[in-house]
Amino acid sequence: MPLTAFAINCSLKASGDKEKSSTDKIIADLLSALKPHGVRGEVVRALDHDIKAGVLSDMGKGDDWPDLREKIISADIFILGLPIWMGQPSSVAKRVMERMDAFLSETDDKGRMPAAGKVALVAIVGNEDGAHHCHAECFQALNDVGFTIPANGGVYWVGEAMGDVNYVDLPATPEEVDGMIDMAASNAAHLATLLKGKAYIGVDK
In this structure, how many other beta carbons lie within 10 angstroms of the beta carbon of residue 71? Predict the structure, then answer.
C-alpha cells in the first residue's frame, strides 16, 4: 500500500487572496520530494475552513475541524506548514495544534493516542529569524499528542530580516533548502513505512 501525506497550510491568507503563499510553496516542494518515495499527498488551507476555537475534536455546529481531524489521523505523514509572525508560529497554526489537544484524552485500550504511529513534519517560512524556535514549539506540541518526529523533520527558509523577498519569489530553491527538504522527505517516508509495518504496542491500562 502506498503511503499518504496530509498537509495543512496555516498561512494567514485564504485561498482567494491575490498574494501568493510562501507556505504553499514550501509544502508543495516537500510533497514533490515525497513522491519518489511512493507518497501521495493532499494539502488544504486552514483559513478556507471554519476551525472553531477550543480543545475538543468537535466544537459543534459549523465546526469544520472533525473532517480535517479525520484526514490528519488517516494519513501516514502529517505536514504542518506555517509562516513566522513576530517570531512566533502563526496564530492559525496554534489553533490547529490546540484542536489536537483532544488527542490526549482519546486513547485506545493500550493508551495510544489517535496520532500514534503517524509521522509529523513541520515546514516553516518567514522573513525574519525564529525558525528553530517555531520548530521547537510545534514539535513539542505534536510529540505531546502522539506524533513521531523523524530525524531532520523540520524544513525552513527565512529571508533577510525586515526584507521584502519571500520564499515564493525566489527564482530557484536554494541548494541548502533543497537538500533539507529531500532529507526530511526521505526520513519521513522511511519512518512511516516502518511504523505502518509494525505499530507501537502501547501499554496495558
Answer: 15
